[in-house]
Design a protein that fits this description.
Helix content is about 45%, strand content about 15%. It is an alpha+beta fold. The protein has two domains: about 80 residues, no CATH class; about 70 residues, no CATH class. It has a three-stranded antiparallel sheet. A hairpin with a 5-residue loop joins strand 1 and strand 2. Helix 2 crosses helix 3. The longest helix has 20 residues. It starts with a helix and ends with a strand.
Length: about 170
Amino acid sequence: MFFDFGIDPQLELKNQCQMFYDKASNSPKWATQYFMRFLEQQKDRAARKEIQYTTIPNYYKSAKLFCVMNDIILNWQKIAKGVPYQKKAADDRPPTLSEIKKLLEYPDKRIKPIILTMISSGIRLGAWDEMKWKHVTPIEDSEKNVIAAKLLAQTDEQYHYYFVCFM
């Protein structure tokens, strides 16, 4: 995609890479302008709804990695100004009561505690990947009955505590 933008798309990828490398090594200014034009073209495509705006940083990251790995030194701060803002989280909403009921109707009994834990704590699906039993701390009442649990979930190098109530 990146090399097809300004280099003959009929060439094999290996040859496109070599042509870009040769031009960018000899003229960092040309490469910076190439990046800027490429990003503008991708923003135009997003405006026409051909791609999503959140796709553009992926193109940028892979092209930047190519340059970094091949010692092509460019002004990345300047180029990054052309990358559109990327939201960190999706436009999520809590499930409706009818959606929760529908999920709980699933015949596999292992699903019910997972669904109820996620709904009552607010953890996301990705939090389960790294969760272990040591991340679950029971909370007891004065009679030593477990009434809730504290979950420690890690996401993006941050730890979050959640409480799950039992009935």
